[in-house]
Write a structure and sequence with these properties.
8% of the residues lie in helices and 49% in strands. The chain is mainly beta and 548 residues long.
């Protein structure tokens, strides 16, 4: 499969350098320039300047209809300058441009000498009248101000029309994914991008998303309708616009904590009478994130880095650590009724999440950007209700859950923009037995330490279902070129995804024991140990779009 990689890379390169296509632009400034009589003015130089651009300025000229369009702009505050020989120079200052937004900025120019100029300060456009895209842009100010669990899912539930399979309440889903849905689409229809490049994983046909460090996001765009030619699915499409750094060293740190004392207790007498001895809740939730950005070489090479450490402890309903001298199936009722002292079982989770991004202005017309975001997760006791934490909970170990990309952008001419990129999602996680449960094959302990479940009482003890490993890798290539005038744009491009998904599965005794009211009932025989792999050979898309 990997022998095909050079072929895909060559195809991407050919499209990258040779096709008249349009790149996945983040933001656009467009409009029409007229004179005092209302007639359109062709040949006007329109310059957009901002500290958000590592090259500082981007300039185009109006076409025969007096229209212009400046594409692939970073979010930020811009000054737009209109200049033409024989006319007063006009400046529009303090225009705040959001991600995935087309801001209409028209120019009205009067006849005057070259030395004359007019500076206009006004409100930034807030309505995109040039595209039919339905998207919600969440700025950095919003991300910082609104209390969330700092995940792309908890942030996304702020968007109208976006539904989650399990809503995040008070950080309750901070380290366990919940899935998006819009317009009745499934979770696999969700696409996550960083800087316009796909970072979806392979699991669940792409439904399982990466654990991105939220500190890297400058703006988050959640598109719910009106996708363009390169849109892969009909579900939610989100684009995380990353921070680049800048010409000044800037950094920060934040600590978030949800104290146990802030939480109520909904263990009512009605629940107790129905056999509930403990409810789901948040025992401990806190995280710390530190970030720093700045120049490695002014106007040439910028960096941004962040490191997140998070800890989340969640007691599980009707699950208890029983005393060592009390067999779990016998002692559960005593724990529930408080006849003996039992500690409620806790799903304890922690994660370290470093990220580094570099942005390099190779030349005045060429820019290269790359990043790597790695999440290292450990869930000490993954379990559900009525599960023995000591023997039947799962150690969910994820030493590597990484995404990254490399992207080249070339402004060949003011009307011709070329982009190409490579992105990936690599996961390495194992579901393991607790210490002392796994045993060498065909030994007495291997036969004794098996998964036991009771159909009548709902208990689960002895061992988890199995030890398993999931190792999906997904690689993505995209290439495009833009030819854009003021009123017309052509877009042609390609996207492809490929990669292996390796798995293994193993269980003590190669079987499960099933009971009914603690009386042996049956066994389920397994075909373990097994190892197998799936391969995504290609998910290739070619697109073309002509817009007037």
């Amino acid at each position: 499969m990997f022998k095909r990689f050079p072929v895909r890379a060559l195809l991407a390169l050919l499209l990258f350098v040779g096709l008249p296509s349009m790149a996945h632009a983040q933001s656009v400034i467009a409009g029409v320039v007229r004179d005092e009589s209302g007639a359109v003015l062709p040949g006007v130089t329109v310059e957009a300047a901002s500290d958000a651009l590592i090259e500082k300025t981007r300039a185009v000229e109006t076409d025969g209809q007096g229209a212009y369009r400046i594409v692939d702009l970073r979010p930020g505050v811009y000054t737009v300058t209109f200049s033409l020989s024989g006319f007063q120079t006009v400046k529009r200052e303090k225009l705040e441009l959001a991600a995935n937004f087309t801001a209409t900025v028209n120019g009205d120019m009067k006849v005057g000498s070259l030395e004359e100029s007019v500076t206009v300060s006004g409100a930034s456009p807030v309505v995109d009248v040039q595209t039919n895209t339905k998207a919600q842009v969440l700025s950095r100010d919003v991300l910082d101000a609104v209390p969330t669990a700092r995940t792309i899912q908890s942030i996304g539930q702020l968007v109208v029309g976006v539904n989650l399979s399990s809503p995040d309440v008070g950080g309750s889903r901070a380290m366990q994914q919940t899935y998006f849905a819009i317009h009745g689409t499934g979770a696999a229809q969700t696409v996550v991008m960083v800087d316009g490049l796909i970072t979806n994983g392979m699991m669940g046909d792409g439904a399982v998303q990466a654990y991105h460090n939220e500190a890297m996001v400058q703006e988050a765009v959640y598109q719910t309708a009106g996708g363009s030619g390169e849109t892969v699915t009909g579900g939610l499409n989100m684009n995380l616009v990353p921070k680049d750094g800048g010409n000044q060293f800037k950094g920060g740190a934040k600590i978030t904590k949800s104290p146990k004392s802030w939480q109520g207790n909904n263990l009512t007498q009605n629940l107790i009478s129905r056999g509930v001895g403990g409810v789901d809740k948040v025992e401990n939730f806190w995280e710390a994130n530190i970030e720093q950005g700045g120049p490695l070489a002014k106007d040439k090479l910028w960096f941004f880095g962040a490191f997140r450490h998070a800890r989340y402890d969640k007691p599980i309903a009707n699950t208890f650590f029983t005393p060592t001298n009390v067999p779990y199936p016998v002692g559960y009722e005593q724990c529930r009724t408080k006849a003996i002292s039992c500690e409620q079982g806790i799903s304890d989770e922690k994660m370290d999440n470093p990220i580094l991004r570099l942005t390099w202005q190779v030349s005045p017309k060429n820019k290269f950007a790359a990043y790597n975001d790695r999440a290292m997760r450990l869930r000490g006791h993954a379990m559900g209700s009525l599960t023995d934490p000591t023997t039947a909970s799962v150690v969910w170990h994820t030493p590597n859950f990484s995404t990254g990309s490399m992207k080249w952008t070339s402004t060949v001419t003011p009307r011709l923009l070329v982009e190409g990129g490579f992105s990936y999602n690599r996961e390495r996680y194992d579901n393991l037995y607790q210490d002392g449960i796994a045993a060498p094959r065909n030994t007495a302990a291997w036969s004794a330490n098996v998964r036991k479940s009771d159909n009548s009482l709902g208990y689960l003890w002895g061992a988890p279902s199995a030890q398993l490993g999931n190792y999906p890798d997904r690689y993505n290539i995209g290439a495009s070129t833009s030819y854009v005038t003021g009123t017309h744009s052509i877009k042609v491009g390609m996207q492809d995804s490929f990669g292996p998904y390796r798995k293994y599965n193993n269980a003590n005794a190669d079987l499960y024991q099933v009971y009914n009211n603690l009386v042996p009932l049956q066994v389920t025989v397994l075909n373990t140990p097994i190892q197998y792999a799936e391969y995504l050979d290609a998910n290739l898309g070619l697109y073309a779009q002509d817009s007037w």
